[in-house]
Specification:
The structure holds 2 protein chains of 2 kinds. Chain A is an all-alpha fold. Chain A has one domain: MetI-like (MetI-like fold), CATH 1.10.3720. In chain A, 70% of the residues lie in helices and 1% in strands. In chain A, strands 1-2 form a two-stranded antiparallel sheet. In chain A, a hairpin with a 5-residue loop joins β1 and β2. The longest helix of chain A has 37 residues. By secondary structure, chain B is mainly alpha-helical. Chain B has 2 domains: 55 residues, no CATH class; 221 residues, MetI-like fold (Orthogonal Bundle), CATH 1.10.3720.10. Chain B contains 12 helices and 4 strands. In chain B, a hairpin with a 3-residue loop joins β1 and β2. In chain B, α6 packs across α7. The longest helix of chain B is centred in the N-terminal third of the chain and has 36 residues. Chain B is elongated, with a radius of gyration of 25 Å. The chains are: A mainly alpha, B mainly alpha. Chains A and B meet through α7, α11 and α13 of A and α5, α6, α10, α11 and α12 of B.
């Protein structure tokens, strides 16, 4: 009799892991669904950018002088910055380059630099945070001071100053000048200012986790420090790490665009939203469309990532409420 | 302009031998730690720089380096640009505190209403927009289309206070719009958290007015994190509102730094970055001191 009752209950009550519960919560969140869709659209556009170039039989760097009015200072002919069936978002003043393709390829630059910088910052931040939190004492002192020093840097100013210097140094070592060198330099510079935020959060979590029984148990079984840090403690940290990553990506997108806007980012003729905004400064009063496209693109992408990050945090932490 | 100051001093009729003599006179051939030691000493007691083999340049303390390109000490370049940056920082920070705090307080008190949602949407937009985009839009609307405001720039407030304010409005509003977002979110979430505390219920039970509870008890506890963020933001801004000054073409410290990077005027870059770091560290220290007054749990030892 009693065995039967248990069997019925077992079929009704499913065991669910915390991650499954978080996923359920995330799936019910309407903001999360909309923002994830927007993020997905941008990723889709950037991955399939060449497809659009092939469809329109155009490239983001091809000049179209026939779309410009030479009497009007080479501004686009037609309304809204030259929007037409051939050029969906209009064309660039002076050159006539297709703005839709430059927008799509700009998404590529923006997303790939931001994702790479976030990845590097996360790996460095997680490792340093784990080490500082686990070992404590002098090691923690040194690493924590290092985090504070980096956080005290005027980051935009310093990134602006160090990027050309680092690049010159690498070119002096035999690397080619151009985006092949510049982009990795930007990624490293952005990551070197991003890691302390992740490291601080991880360190704080590790300090409370390292005293828990399961770590003691593993230690008593003779596990190595490497095993304790990466196999016992790290798997418990994926939730805070995921949230930090989600909220770090928009910061990196913004920083990359700002760096390029200030002239120390990716080099022409590579499409980039920051570079588009920079060149639109000269035309914003006569061709506002040229400013609006990269500006709104950045706004929507950053907004979507911010909202998605908030939703992920709420889903992972049932206590937090907006 | 060549980046190497020795090359600049050497002039057109430069021979490798002369170049070597100049490099030696300018002490560029010294090891980096020695050069840095002299630079740091110069910040506190002043020093002289040798331009070429004959000319000696005085650089009084605090000497932040000597710009060979403009033939001026970096300190005097910074002194010229500081008022514009100060004007932006003071005006913008007052405005964003006002907007951010009042928006946050209003949303916390009227939680769930239309006012709350509106204020939250405003904050969310502010947190995702870029200074250079909003700045250009506002400039397009208020300067080019409506012609209500002049082109942003900097005039001394002691000479023409009204013109100064008119030219500063756009930078202030742009910065305040974007930065107040964080403040309104922090205020709102902080106040809502404190409102569920037991001592607030006690205060309500003993019959205190809602206004007194909200401002005297809730806001007092919720304001500590805001002081931290405010100190850091203001410190960073004093070192140069780099993007704002660049967009609105205002001759401040940030503009000085971006120009120096473009011209590869390294002494100016070093000086401005150092000054910006000093501002951030000072702001950090002030925040820590203020903290001990605001929060009795924190006591400086």
């Amino acid at each position: 009799m009693s065995t039967q009752v248990i069997a019925v209950d077992a079929s009704r009550v499913e065991g669910r892991s915390p991650s499954q519960m978080a996923w359920e919560r995330l799936k019910k969140d309407r903001t999360a669904k909309i923002s994830a869709t927007v993020v997905f659209i941008f990723i889709f556009l950037s991955v399939f950018a060449p497809l659009f170039a092939w469809l329109t039989k155009d490239t983001p760097n091809a000049f179209h002088p026939e779309t410009l009015d030479s009497a009007m200072g080479a501004l686009p002919i037609g309304k809204l910055g030259g929007v037409s069936g051939d050029h969906w978002f209009g064309v660039e003043p002076q050159t006539g380059r297709d703005l839709f393709l430059r927008f799509v390829y700009g998404a590529r630059t923006s997303l790939s630099v931001a994702l790479a910088a976030t990845f590097v910052a996360t790996v460095v931040g997680v490792v340093i945070g784990l080490v500082a939190g686990f070992f404590g004492g002098k090691i923690d002192q040194v690493l924590s001071r290092l985090m504070e020093i980096v956080l005290a840097f005027p980051s935009i100013l310093f990134a602006l100053a160090i990027t050309p210097v680092l690049e010159d140094f690498l070119i002096g070592r035999g690397l080619q000048s151009g985006n092949g060198t510049r982009i990795p330099v930007i990624i490293v510079v952005l990551a070197s200012f991003g890691w302390p935020y992740i490291a601080r959060i991880v360190r704080g979590q590790v300090i409370s986790l390292r005293e828990r029984e399961f770590v003691d148990a593993a230690r008593a079984l003779g596990a190595s420090k490497f095993h304790l840090i990466f196999k016992q403690i790290l798997p418990n940290l994926w939730a805070p790490i995921l949230v930090t990553v989600a909220l770090n990506i928009p910061t990196m997108i913004t920083a990359e665009a700002a760096l390029t806007f200030l002239g120390a980012g990716v080099m022409a003729p590579l499409s980039d939203w920051g570079a588009m905004l920079l060149s639109s400064v000269a035309f914003y009063s006569v061709d506002p469309m040229f400013t609006a496209i990269p500006g709104f693109a950045l706004f929507f992408l950053v907004l979507a990532f911010n909202l998605l990050g908030d939703s992920v945090r709420d889903a992972l932490d049932p206590k937090s409420s907006r | 302009m060549p980046a190497d100051p020795a090359r600049l001093a050497c002039g057109k009729a430069c021979t490798p031998e002369l170049m070597e003599r100049i490099r030696h006179a300018m002490e560029i051939d010294q090891p980096l730690p020695t050069q840095y030691g002299r630079f740091v000493k110069g910040v506190f007691v002043g020093r002289t720089y040798n331009a070429g083999t004959e000319v000696q340049l005085d650089c009084a303390a605090p000497c932040l380096g000597y710009s060979y390109q403009t033939d001026l000490p970096v300190t005097s370049l910074i002194k010229d640009r500081l008022p514009a940056t100060l004007s932006i920082a003071v005006g913008a920070s007052l405005l964003w505190l006002l907007v951010g705090l009042s928006g946050g307080i209003l949303s916390a008190i009227k939680r769930g209403t239309l006012i709350d949602r509106g204020s939250q949407a405003f904050a969310l937009a502010g947190a995702s927009l870029q200074i250079y985009f909003v700045g250009l839009i506002l400039q397009f609307i208020f300067v080019n289309k409506l012609e209500w405001l002049p082109m942003p720039g900097y005039i001394s407030p002691f000479e023409m206070p009204l013109e100064w304010a008119k030219e500063m409005v756009l930078p202030w509003v742009t910065l305040a719009f974007l930065l107040s977002a964080i403040y309104s979110r922090l205020t709102r979430s902080g106040m809502i958290e404190v409102m569920s505390e037991d001592y607030i219920r006690t205060a309500r039970a003993k019959g205190l007015s809602a206004r007194r509870i909200n401002f005297k008890h809730v806001l007092r506890s919720a304001i500590t994190p805001i002081v931290t963020v405010f100190g850091l933001d203001l410190g960073a801004l004093l070192g140069g509102a780099v993007i704002t000054e660049y967009v609105f073409n205002i001759p401040g410290l940030g503009k000085l730094a971006t120009e120096a990077v473009e011209n590869v005027d390294m002494p100016v870059v070093t000086g401005t970055v150092l000054l910006a770091a000093i501002f951030i560290i000072t702001a950090n220290m002030i925040v820590d001191i203020v903290y001990s007054f605001l929060d009795p749990k924190v006591r400086l030892k």
